[in-house]
């Protein structure tokens, strides 16, 4: 177990202005851990960090750097030392990755290789990478455990699988503590003060429900009610972002050497209709919906086996669907 007092330098949080990265910043501030944020603001702005600065009465060291810019990144690592790196920076839209696979390769894979080169040059040994359940593709069995074949079916998922391999294949990381975290479907907000702020029309379910609740959209499009699930709509493993960050904390504190992959989910699946019902009940807001054809590339059901992370890192999700729906809405209403 790592003792936080042995962190002689700050933690670097790449992508720290984004949805999940800013929640990690919040957790570190709560735990009084020094941190530095790098982000190029390509899918975020400074508002979550500014909210956290006010809330915690601190200044968050922020560097506007594109991780594709090798020279700038090297200069930055030459000027700062870090005890650990949590690498969130990346593009995450499946649809955009299909339209522009080269951009996704360049941003997510080449950018991550640059981060890895700098990590190695400085000799940093405590690392977390944001991977995704997307790497599993269409599940061959449920719940999906970490041994399930990796078979991503879109360029975004391919970039996540490729970056995992960059860590796994590199001899250097056999002497470091590396956690490759495969997130399922994160939702919610940190203590209702910061949340998810997608640019433009949301692709994901919860941000779209929030848009309907705010009156920006007349109804939710439910993509398919003819799946082989109890009510015909798609089933996913939603996880509260607060729980997800606690999983990062457990990963950061674990000093076992080597590269380990962990699913991070609740281990339970909820359908789109169950999400809508829970949201309506807990927030007393009506979410009208219309059934549409299935969305290209969607799968029926996906939920995680979570025994490995429970057994190795002593982490499991605590917050239920009602908390996810309430906290997502309270910061967005
Ligand atoms: P986000 O878009 O809100 O945050 C990502 C951040 O990275 C943004 O602030 C963006 O500006 C920054 N970024 C992107 N490319 C960059 C670059 N080249 N240089 C510097 N900064 C760059 O997304 P998020 O939901 O917070 O996701 C964080 C990470 O977790 C991503 O890697 C994503 O693929 C992964 N992930 C997210 C989910 C999810 O549903 N939110 C699920 C699984 C995995
Ligand atoms: C959930 C369910 C939809 C929107 C994606 C990425 C994955 C990960 C999380 C980053 C499905 C249905 C959705 C809507 C709907 N991100 N839906 N109407 O597809 O499980 O995963 O985000 O790594 O990589 O693929 O999440 O929230 O888009 O969809 O009916 O407007 O909601 O069909 O059943 P998904 P999602």
Automatic annotation (TrEMBL):
Residues 12-327 form the NAD(P)-binding domain. GO terms for biological process: galactose metabolic process. GO terms for cellular component: cytosol. It catalyses: UDP-alpha-D-glucose = UDP-alpha-D-galactose. Pfam families: GDP_Man_Dehyd. Gene3D superfamilies: NAD(P)-binding Rossmann-like Domain, UDP-galactose 4-epimerase, domain 1. Belongs to the NAD(P)-dependent epimerase/dehydratase family. Homodimer. This is UDP-glucose 4-epimerase. The lineage of its organism: Bacteria, Pseudomonadati, Pseudomonadota, Betaproteobacteria, Nitrosomonadales.
């Amino acid at each position: 177990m790592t003792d936080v007092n042995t962190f002689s330098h700050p933690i670097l949080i790449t992508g720290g202005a984004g949805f999940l990265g800013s929640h990690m910043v919040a957790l570190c501030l709560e735990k009084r851990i020094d941190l530095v944020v790098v982000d190029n603001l390509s899918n975020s702005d400074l508002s979550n960090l500014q909210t956290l600065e006010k809330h915690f009465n601190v200044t968050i060291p922020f560097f506007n750097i594109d991780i594709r810019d090798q020279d700038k990144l090297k200069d930055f690592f030459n000027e700062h030392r870090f005890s650990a790196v949590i690498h969130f920076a990346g593009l995450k839209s499946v649809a955009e990755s299909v339209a522009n696979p080269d951009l996704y390769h360049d941003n997510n894979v080449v950018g991550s290789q640059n981060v890895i080169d700098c990590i190695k040059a400085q000799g940093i040994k405590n690392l977390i990478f944001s991977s995704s359940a997307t790497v599993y593709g269409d599940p061959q069995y449920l719940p999906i455990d970490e041994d399930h074949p990796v078979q991503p079916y879109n360029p975004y998922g391919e970039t996540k699988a490729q970056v995992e391999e960059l860590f796994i294949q590199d001899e250097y990381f056999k002497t470091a503590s590396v956690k490759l975290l495969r997130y399922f479907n994160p939702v919610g907000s940190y203590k209702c003060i910061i949340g998810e702020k997608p640019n433009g029309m949301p692709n994901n379910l919860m941000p779209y429900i929030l848009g309907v609740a705010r009156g920006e959209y007349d109804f939710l499009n439910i993509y398919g009610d003819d799946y082989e699930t109890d009510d015909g709509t798609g089933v996913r493993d939603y996880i509260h972002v607060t729980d997800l960050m606690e999983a990062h904390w457990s990963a950061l504190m674990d000093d076992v050497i080597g590269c380990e992959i962990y699913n991070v989910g609740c281990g339970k699946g909820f359908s789109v209709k169950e999400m809508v019902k829970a949201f309506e009940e807990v927030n007393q807001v009506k979410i009208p919906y219309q059934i549409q054809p299935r969305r290209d590339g969607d799968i029926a059901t996906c939920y995680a086996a979570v025994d490995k992370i429970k057994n190795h890192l002593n982490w499991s999700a605590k917050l239920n669907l009602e908390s996810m729906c309430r906290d997502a809405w309270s910061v967005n209403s």
